[in-house]
Amino acid sequence: MPLDWDADSYRRVGTGIMALGHEVLERTELRGDEIVLDAGCGPGELTAELAARVPDGRVYAVDASPRMVELARERLGERATVWEQDLLDLEAPEPVDFIFSAATFHWIADHERLFRRLRAALKPGGRLVVQCGGAGNIAAIRAAIEDVSGDPWMPWNFATPQDTEARLCAAGFADACAWLYERPVASDEPLVFLKTAILGAHLERLPEAEREPFAQAVLDRLDKPFVARYMRLNMEAKADA
Fold this sequence. Notes:
By secondary structure, this protein is an alpha/beta fold. The protein has helices at residues 7-13, 15-26, 45-53, 66-76, 111-121, 139-149, 161-170, 190-198, 200-204, 208-220, and strands at 35-39, 58-63, 81-84, 96-102, 122-133, 173-186, 227-239.
């Protein structure tokens, strides 16, 4: 069952994460007439920027969270077609020229299947531009979670660039390139940030009364002031012609 999200809280505390996605869009060139897909659109903030970049194109957006889909539809209106679907079962309404995704793929365990579904959605020669958490992401927070829970279970797939390039090529992509860089993200509401952006899957495993104490215990083990040290996995590729 895909993780649902507290969309209102994410919109309030997720500014730093969204800034990472804007950074990727800023370096992405579009003609303006492409058919584009935002894979894991969240509340639609980055989808709106995509729509502004393709005034003569069409925009599709998909997310597995019903709450995020509702928020994205409210934000985007007729500028994009938004629907709820697990990306592992992705079926685009039509072949697209460009797929963008930010802060999503590390929540998906099966990157091999994911990349095959994305390749199937692209036209031959279509482009994929993605950023998500990669190897080494939020290492200190993960250590604190394991210390509090006593359980090494983690819900994320923080892949390496080497494994990512190999998986992209195996799925039918060419010119696959992946790389990492670090971006620290601070928050004025660290407890809400942790609960909303990081700990959701852990908290869902706990009884309601234990969730707030768990999140607070994780926060208490982290350095002050709070900074989430994100390692961002970037990937760019083209669908084989």
